[in-house]
């Protein structure tokens, strides 16, 4: 099972449902409509209560049953709230007053990221750029800046372009631009994932002189290439 802090519900796959041999009659019909991270509809077969065991502690968890291939299931907000679960990313544990679970990270903790989803459906006219609002779905500790990284779809793959940008990790909403350079209008659905955000390792201060630029570069062990040094001096002379 995967831990998904961006999921509103706990999900199990139809394959897992069959493997644990629960009767089909146990599935209760639900009117809940679910969407994937990219905004597509997710077919829901029903909801049932599944017995889960953690270190000898057994709990009953309500789960929605659906068809997907990436995992056998996802722990969502319902699981976290019911069991008062918190995530210790430093030690790699899922913690509850009743149990502790050692997590197996798919990525290093230094590259923990959150997802950015559109808060509303947007219409982007042809040959235009608009500003849209996104919601950061994830949890970060501390007051730090983050780097908003567009998905491959928004790097020209679908003829839409979105720039990288720095955002405040403490904010739940961010504003960014999307460019449509084509001759056809585009529509992006509400809740579609457009980017990810991960903590920025270091943000250099804005430099106003050549010496300050070189000083900032020395902090990271980098050196400004000679051809850029010449260009920098030329630009500076134009402003003096």
Automatic annotation (TrEMBL):
Superkingdom classification of source: Eukaryota
InterPro entries with a match to the protein in the record: Aspartic_peptidase_AS, Peptidase_aspartic_dom_sf
GO BP term, pick one: proteolysis
Entries under SUPFAM superfamilies matching the protein: Acid proteases
MF-aspect GO terms: aspartic-type endopeptidase activity
Name the UniProt record assigns to this protein: Peptidase A2 domain-containing protein
Organism of origin: Mytilus coruscus (Sea mussel)
